[in-house]
Amino acid sequence: MKTLVKIALTATLVSTLGTLGLSGLAIASESQDTNNVQTSQAREEGEQNEQEESQEDDAEEKQEAARLQSLAKITAQQAKQAAETAQGGTASKVELEDEDGNLVYQVVIDQTEVMVDAGNGKVLYTEQANQENEEDETNRPRSSIQVPDTDRKTNDDPGR
């Protein structure tokens, strides 16, 4: 009889420990699911904030582009023609920019950036793309149109 009691007690103990273990796993699993939901929600909120900031940046860029365009005296097409004639080749990109207070069209031809005066269509200077020479910046010709300094963000700004 003593053996039967021992077996019964052992079975009860194993059963109880097994149930506690399973409930512990269930609690841990539920806790992990809650953490996953919270992490997912935080990620979605971060993505939503990034989208809102991106939309605000896009709106600011469009506003700045409209402001610059209102100051320009020549079109992007005229700037492109002037750059292609001076440099030779075909332009892959034309962009109106405030370059250190100078209103210019940046025309990219191959690996060369051609800066065209947005006021009179003259080529001001050229430089190799992504290889700005800051020593030459002070000696560069100025555009015929100077952009008023209204908390300007130029392409040279590191904050941009």
UniProtKB/TrEMBL annotation:
InterPro entries: PepSY (IPR025711). Residues 73-126 form the PepSY domain. Keywords: Signal. Residues 30-40 have a biased composition (Polar residues). Residues 30-66, 80-100, 123-160 are annotated as: Disordered. Residues 80-91 have a biased composition (Low complexity). It holds the Pfam family PepSY. Residues 149-160 have a biased composition (Basic and acidic residues). This is Peptidase. It comes from Hydrococcus rivularis NIES-593. The lineage of its organism: Bacteria, Bacillati, Cyanobacteriota, Cyanophyceae, Pleurocapsales.
